[in-house]
Amino acid sequence: MEIFKSRYGSERVIHKVDANRLRIQGESLFSRTATDDSGNITMFDFEGGPVLSVGGNVRFGHMKWKIKSIQPITTDKDNLAECILEVEANY
Questions:
Q1: Extended beta strands in 41-79, E state
Q2: For 60-75, what is each residue's pLDDT tens digit?
Q3: Burial of 22 per CB tally in 10 Å (0-12, 13-18, 19+)
Q4: pLDDT digits (tens, 9 = 90+) for 8-59
Q5: Burial 34-51 (b: 16+ CB within 10 A, else e)
Q6: How many C-beta atoms surround the C-beta of residue 69 within 10 A?
Q7: CA 51, 54, 57, 72 torsion: positive or negative?
Q8: Sheet strand arrangement including 41-46
Q9: Where are the alpha helices (DSSP H) in the chain?
Q10: 16-22 own/partner pairs: CB under 8 Å, 24+ apart
Q11: Is the pLDDT of residue 7 over 90?
């Protein structure tokens, strides 16, 4: 698990779900997504960051990971946003 702060000082927590998936969650008043023409989610944006996009990179565990897919997680908690990233090591 790693913790970093958004540009507004809100904590974002990243932890490894399994060998190819990372979960990112944190306090956020809102989040936004974008989709491609097929309806696949291609971007997830927390309030204050990070903005995550398919094909982009995320750092975790002293490594850089390439984002292959993004799955937003619906939660019943107020002001909490989270998503699961399918990733592969990007050496």
A1: 41-46, 51-53, 57-60, 63-73
A2: 999 999 999 999 999 8
A3: buried
A4: 999 999 999 999 999 999 999 999 999 999 999 999 999 999 999 999 999 9
A5: eeeeeeebbbbbbbbbbe
A6: 13
A7: positive
A8: 31-35, 41-46, 51-53
A9: none
A10: 16/60, 16/61, 17/84, 20/68, 20/86, 20/87, 20/88, 21/84, 21/85, 21/86, 21/87, 22/58, 22/60, 22/65, 22/84, 22/85, 22/87
A11: yes
Phi and psi of 90, rounded to 5°? -120, 85
Give the CA-trace dihedral at 8, 11, 14, 17, to 10 degrees.
-130
Tokens 């204050």 correspond to: 48
Can you read off the two tokens belonging to residue 65?
A: 């990971």
Tokens describing residue 44: 């997830």
Per the CB < 8 A criterion, the answer to whether 60 and 16 are in contact is yes
Question: Does 91 have pLDDT greater than 90?
Answer: no
